[in-house]
Amino acid sequence: MKVLVPIKRVIDYNVKVRVKADNSGVDLANVKMAMNPFCEIAVEEAVRLKEKGVVTEIVAVSIGPKAAQEQLRTAMALGADRSILVETDEEIQPLGIAKALKAIVEEEKPEMVILGKQAIDDDNNQTGQMLAALTGMPQGTFASEVNVEEGKVKVTREIDGGLQTVELKLPAVVTTDLRLNEPRYASLPNIMKAKKKPLDVKTPADLGVDMTPRVTIEKVETPAERKAGVMVGSVDELVEKLKNEAKVI
Amino acid sequence: MSVLVYAEHDNATLNKVTLSVLAAAKEIGGDITVLVAGKGCGAVAEEAAKAEGVSKVLCADNDAYEHQLAENIAELVAEVGADYKHILAAATTTGKNFAPRVAALLDVAQISEISDVIDGDTFKRPIYAGNAIATVKCADEKKVITVRGTSFDGVAAEGGSASVENLDVVKDSGLSSFVSEELAKSDRPELTSADIVISGGRGMGNGDNFEILYKVADKLGAAVGASRAAVDAGFVPNDMQVGQTGKIVAPQLYMAVGISGAIQHLAGMKDSKVIVAINKDEEAPIFQVADYGLVADLFEAVPELDSKL
Ligand SMILES: Cc1cc2nc3c(=O)[nH]c(=O)nc-3n(C[C@H](O)[C@H](O)[C@H](O)COP(=O)(O)OP(=O)(O)OC[C@H]3O[C@@H](n4cnc5c(N)ncnc54)[C@H](O)[C@@H]3O)c2cc1C
């Protein structure tokens, strides 16, 4: 079966972001960018399914700036067979992205779409669910285990109370949680090979979708900093402070 | 103007987080209706009817809703939501699962995890693991929103007397089905609503060592949480993870034990009133957000703490 893996280019998760002085957003100039960690997990899962013989083709797709080709090349170095970039420099939001992905799903007809549960920049956690709604597919969100069976997939989900397993008819959307797998690193020969794999570039207009943002960001602020605390020298002092100063125990 | 609030529950009792969502609804303003969808969830509907500020409770009691499958719930909420300007759910794994699906069915944006209401169109929400707070304004006619429970003080659970109406709408997509669940059982308070939380990290070494945290927690009536590293290493189950991708907590007292303080962990606890860090590395970033820091080996400090409480 064919699997579609949508991925996003985001700020590297190790970078501490800085809010711009004019409060228009966060400063992304000269900041290290990378594939969203949850997307790496999605690529890895697709590759493992291919290695098991369940999946025959992996198509990576990204919607974003030209520079996102870098992340698509990484996905191909990790094992995706080909990729599609829907290139746009406009601000994009989950509903618009889901609409673009729906158009790709209609063209590619994958049996499964595996994507990250959230991107670590906007922390929205929406795109997979929205794509599932628009395409009428079932969804297995926050997956920590994925088992494909004949015509269906069993997904174990990380929920607030513990774990829940659901069974979905294929085609289905799966969104990845942290413990689904540990992504591999791309090897040098695979990075070289990935350069020759096909990367198709399209525009939102090619797909005929309206990706106009519905939400405007009025301002972005730095959260209130915590006041520096004190170091205590002993457990006794800690207990004393918690009882008499902070009065929390 | 009216607001529909989706109730979070386990078919038996209303989850307290719904009271926080009701508080956000109250700030938006207008008549508040609560939708309870589940199986055998009549008692939950009765409980919701007593919450402060609720004018009506709709109860959709059907097999199709027993396990909160997003495919069924989203269709129900999208249909019922047609009459409302705002649709609110808690930013729990249940709310996060179905709310975007509702928004897409209605062709509107979804606003995730709001931490503040400015007006009916404008909200604040944390982005970049809480390292920035965005004020966002939504142009859509209808707003589908998830609410960060710890950012709103819940309305009173008692005092209201709303009517309960049974809803005969059955949405069963047939696309998904429930197989099983493994729910953590604990006599300790729930992580997201506890007044005191004690979390252990990789420094705990193994799952058995969490015993020393449980002992302190039981003396203080605290909940026990963990860092991702402790969960990934298999020390404790996933439902204990605090952080950007785990649970968001804001207790009166948060104690981080053997946790370095990665930004993703801080995202889940830095709104706590008082933070205590116990770590043997004085350079650990957790000390930068701690009100009280103790540089010590946790295997000495925690048992000592236990003996002194
Ligand atoms: C996309 C993404 C999402 C993430 N989401 C989360 C999340 O939701 N929550 C989360 O927690 N993390 C999350 N992480 C992981 C995060 O980046 C850190 O890796 C993790 O928080 C580290 O956990 P830790 O502090 O327990 O471990 P470490 O960083 O290894 O720290 C262990 C600490 O224990 C101390 N220690 C060791 N032994 C002792 C001892 N005997 N006595 C006292 N101190 C001791 C050490 O000095 C050290 O500071 C996420 C990462 C990514 C990429």
UniProtKB/TrEMBL annotation, chain A:
Keywords: Electron transport, Transport. It comes from the Bacteria. Residues 23-211 form the Electron transfer flavoprotein alpha/beta-subunit N-terminal domain. The keyword Protein transport does not apply. PROSITE patterns: ETF_BETA. SUPFAM superfamilies: Adenine nucleotide alpha hydrolases-like. It holds the Pfam family ETF. Belongs to the ETF beta-subunit/FixA family. PANTHER family: ELECTRON TRANSFER FLAVOPROTEIN BETA-SUBUNIT (PTHR21294), ELECTRON TRANSFER FLAVOPROTEIN SUBUNIT BETA (PTHR21294:SF8). This is Electron transfer flavoprotein subunit beta. It comes from Alloalcanivorax venustensis ISO4.
Automatic annotation (TrEMBL), chain B:
Gene3D superfamilies: HUPs, TPP-binding domain. Keywords: Electron transport, FAD, Flavoprotein, Transport. InterPro entries: DHS-like_NAD/FAD-binding_dom, ETF_a/b_N, ETF_a/FixB, ETF_alpha_N, ETF_asu_C, ETF_asu_C_CS, Rossmann-like_a/b/a_fold. The keyword rRNA-binding does not apply. It comes from the Bacteria. The keyword Electron transport applies. Residues 3-182 form the Electron transfer flavoprotein alpha/beta-subunit N-terminal domain. SMART domains: ETF (SM00893). SUPFAM superfamilies: Adenine nucleotide alpha hydrolases-like, DHS-like NAD/FAD-binding domain. This is Electron transfer flavoprotein subunit alpha. Pfam families: ETF (PF01012), ETF_alpha (PF00766).
